[in-house]
Amino acid sequence: IENMFSESEILKCIEQICEICMNNTSDCKFKKYSYFFYPEKLSIFIYYLINYKNVSFLRILDIIIQCFHRDYVTNKTNFNQKKYYKFFIHLINLISNPPNNNNENIIQDNMINHLILICDTLKVLSPKNYPGFTTAWLDLISYHNFINNFLDTNLIEENSYKYEKYLSLLVDILSYLNQIKAQIIKQYYYKY
Question: Which of 11, 29, 125, 177 holds its CA 20 to 30 A away from the CA of 138?
Fold first, then answer.
């Protein structure tokens, strides 16, 4: 891949694959890559690209967010959060437990940076912005492989910004629950 395609061509390919994988679109010139049309396989492919081909993980996550947004807007009432949940869970597992531990320090640094980018992505996909993704979002931020990396006491002192990133997700949960509570109280009082 690195000798055959530029990063922009790879990102265009990922965008096409994401559209098919997440939105079940059938018109695409990349049908021969149908192996990647499953969220779990797509996460393996992306993990490979970011760790072995140095493709920008931030740009890939931007593509995922755009795909998510188009899917959410198009299928608001029939939005399928399960495929995004599977994608992110599998990606978090791959990043948290890398399959190849040849160079422990580099992998640990990459893991922290990649998890922070996922944290930023989940901040964008919060229930405040996408209420139809709430259940999956809550599961993702409380997933043991995700939360353990942010609450590791050894790493909190070294990387306090990492802890703050996760803390901002917790604040999002509380503010979302506060909004729901306010709506319930309003409905209850207006009922009587």
Answer: 11
